[in-house]
Every structure is written in C-alpha cells, then in structure tokens.
Design goal:
Length: 456
C-alpha cells in the first residue's frame, strides 16, 4: 500500500511538472487561442458555427505536451479532477461534433436562418473532421483492421526517462491491464500494459459519421463489415468482465466495449458491458441497415431492463463505466431510437424521457435546465434527448431559452463539462472536457428545436 501511495504521489507531481502549459479547461479550451468575437447580429446558431470553425485545427500541432492533428477540436483530460489537464486528440469527440454539423445543410438552410457561407463552412469542417478520424483506423496489416481506437498507436521506442516514468505511472494507476496497442499521444510514458485496444464505441461512432460523410459530402461508401467487428465481441461468458452488477446476467449477450483482436484467446484480458456504448453500437448498426446483427436484441433487452429497474438513477456508475451521470445515456439511447430506427428501444426512451422531465429545474421566466455538475452540457443533452423522443413541451422550449441566454456573447461557446471518463483500478477517475463538444451539443439542441417547429 505504501508503495502504491508513494508511486501515486510521485506520478502526480511528475505530471504537474511536465504539463507546465496545461490548465484546466474553463470557458475556452486548453491551449488554443480564443476565437474572435462573433458578429453582434449573428444568430446563436451562427455564433456557435463561428466558434467551431475558429477552434478546429487547420494543421497538425507539434507543441510540447500539446500535439494534435488537423481537423480536430481541442479536448483535454486529467488523471484527477483538479488537473493538470493534458491535450488529448481522439476521434470520439469529433464524431459528435460532426453529427451536429450534419444539420447544417441546404435542406435546413431556411428553417435555421443559414447563409450559403454557413453551409460551406460546415461542409469544410465535416470533411476535415473525417480526415482526422481516419487517422485512427487500424491498418490492413493489423489483427483489428478496419476498427477505430480512441488513441493513436503506442510509440515504437521510448527514452530511458519515459521508461522510468512508465513504471511510476503503472504503480500509481494500478490497472485495468488491457494490454492494448493505443495510448495518449501527449503522455509518452503511458504504461504499455494499460494501453487500450480499439473499441466498439469509437468504431460505431466513426462509422456513423462516415455514413453521413458519404451521404452529405461525397465521401466514399462505407463497405467495411461493421457488423462483424461488433458481433465478434459480445458478452457470452468467454472473457472476464470487469463490471458485474447484480442486475446484469453473467452472459448478457450484449456488445463488449473492447475489440480485443490482439489478445491471446487462451488468456483474454478483462472486458466490459456499458449501456451507453451499446446504445451507440445500436445507432451505428441501425444507420448501416444491420439491425439483424447478433447481439442487437440482447443489447436492446439489457438497456430496457436496466432503465425499467431505475439503474440509471440508483447506480449510474453501474449503467456505464465510461459516462458519468450527465444525461449521455438519455441522449444516446434516444438517438439510437430516433435516427437509428431501433424501435425496440422505445420503452427505454419513454422511461428516460420521464426521468428528464422529473429532474428539470425551472425559474420564474420559464427557463428550464438540468444540473448534474455541468448545466450547459447536461441541458443540451437533455433537450436533444427529449426532441429525439418526440417531446415538444415547455421543458424543451425552456431549455432552448436557457441555452440561448447562457451562450458566451463574445465567443459563441458554452461552458464544458465531462462527457465521458475512465475509471482506474485504484479508484482514480480520468475525466475529459471539451468546450467545442459542449458547444456542438448545444448547437444540435438549438437546430433540432427550430427544425421541430418548422419542418413537417
């Protein structure tokens, strides 16, 4: 125990020293310049677009501890909520920003009050984001060829100091030991045994974005066997499971998080079942017309049983290892139902919508919001989830009013919150924040609300 505590302290102090230029993400993002103020006459949607355009990288970034790739929007993570925060390129955030930008198209131009320049800007951002996402695809030489990972591949060589720091980090964090091949690009000493495989969440969300890229922006048709990647990794009792809550069957049949093609089949590493990940898998399979894939009905049943039992309220950490209690489950389940055509999710969508209606706050001006620690993010996710569920009551109108009022009048952004997280075996939580991501969710809420009022 003393060794673990000592290692944790040394690791924490080391990160603070090495992350000299990194600060907790606040109104802006970690390390990126503030965008120029939006035009005073611009609409809230136009202001949000201007912010996203200003914060998307136009070229690769090679700053110390701040490397990133063209087409990405800044996000940061910390091994502790108090920081330090480290810039962390990943395709995952970009898929959700791309999803919001998919609404900025010609058929919605009049309803959203868009200009031709707005449409062209959104198209450029989407295309740059797709180019960025494709950098995270496993190549044809890999056992997991065609899948996508949250991080780039581990570096081939390490300096002696990185090797030493890796030992300290391993002692501090403890696990889980997933023995994957991907690690954060700005933590060169990340322990190899804690590296992660490619995963179902990134793979599903990127392929959904590629489907939109093909339909909206002339991208290549999606021909990879997405359904095989996901069906290969189901919870059938063949691998040890990290999470074993009492309500989850020993072999649920649902989709596992990690696509661990690099594992030795005789000694599989731990895997997990996450309800939000399963919702995103269902969304991607629905978008690709593959709802006949083995595991779909099991995933639907598990989400339905968990929401009916109120797991998301009583023990949200059991519903998802990777998403905090922030309305992400509500958003992703409703998205899979509404846009993925997963009709079997309707009972869960109703349960989650009722939960949102019961947990909203209101003021005397009939503005409505949700506050689970990050009210801008929480409200945007809740508003879109209710719109996906077909609800058009005062809570949605009030949430949109709240978001418009809370938008930064200078930058067009909203305050960030933790959209997802990771739990280490020592109990430490790594948390990711991104102002552009929260801004994209708010943009989606405003746009879908306007479309619900004007488009039959």
């Amino acid at each position: 125990m003393k060794a673990r505590v000592y290692g944790s302290c040394v690791f924490g102090h080391t990160l603070i020293l090495l992350a000299g230029g990194c600060v907790p993400a606040t109104g802006q993002d970690c390390g990126a310049p503030s965008p120029a103020p939006a035009a005073p006459s611009a609409s809230p949607i136009a202001r949000a677009l201007a912010y996203l355009e200003a914060t998307q990288l136009a070229a690769d970034l090679e700053a110390p501890l701040g490397r990133d790739y063209a087409g990405d929007w800044p996000q940061c993570f910390a091994f502790d909520e108090s920081g330090p925060y480290i810039r962390d390129p990943s395709p995952f955030n970009a898929t959700f920003i791309h999803h919001a930008l998919a609404l900025i198209v010609e058929q919605n131009r009049e309803a959203l009050g868009l200009s031709a320049a707005d449409l062209a800007t959104a198209r450029r951002m989407r295309q740059a984001a797709v180019d960025f996402m494709l950098r995270f695809r496993a190549g044809p030489e890999c056992p997991d060829a065609g899948t996508f990972g949250f991080w780039p591949h581990l570096p081939q060589q390490r300096s002696p100091i990185d090797a030493l720091l890796s030992i300290l980090a391993d002692a501090a964090l403890g696990g889980p030991e997933l023995m994957g091949v991907r690690a954060p690009i700005n933590v060169s000493f990340y322990p190899p045994d804690l590296a992660i495989p490619t995963d179902a969440d990134d793979t599903a969300c990127v392929y959904a974005a590629l489907i939109d890229n093909s339909g909206l922006d002339g991208g290549a048709p999606v021909e990879e066997p997405l359904e095989r990647f996901l069906a290969d990794w189901r919870d059938l009792g063949q691998v040890p499971r990290r999470n074993n809550p009492s309500w989850m069957p020993p072999a649920s049949g649902a989709f596992l998080t990690w696509l661990a093609y690099h594992d030795d089949p005789s000694r599989p590493n731990p895997n997990e079942v996450d309800l939000v990940v399963n919702a995103n898998v269902l969304y991607a399979l629905g978008r690709s017309g593959r709802l006949d894939t083995p595991g779909v009905e099991d995933a639907i049943r598990l989400i339905h049983e968990a929401t009916r039992a109120g797991v998301h309220r009583a023990a949200p950490q059991e519903a998802s290892l990777y998403y905090p209690d922030n309305n992400a489950l509500h958003y992703c389940v409703a998205r899979a139902y509404s846009l993925g055509g997963v009709g079997g999710l309707w009972p869960a969508v109703q349960e989650l919508a009722d939960d949102l209606l019961d947990s909203a706050y209101a003021d005397q001006d009939e503005r409505w919001w949700w506050d689970k620690g990050a009210p801008h993010l929480n409200t945007a996710l809740a508003a879109v989830a209710l719109l996906y569920a077909g609800y058009d009551g005062p809570q949605v109108t009030g949430a949109v009013d709240y978001l418009v009022r809370e938008q930064d009048p200078l930058t067009g952004a909203w305050q960030p919150g933790a959209f997802f997280q990771a739990r280490f075996d020592d109990g430490r939580m790594a948390t990711w924040v991104s102002p552009p991501l929260t801004t994209a969710f708010a943009l989606e809420a405003l746009a879908r609300y306007e479309l619900s009022r004007t488009v039959p």
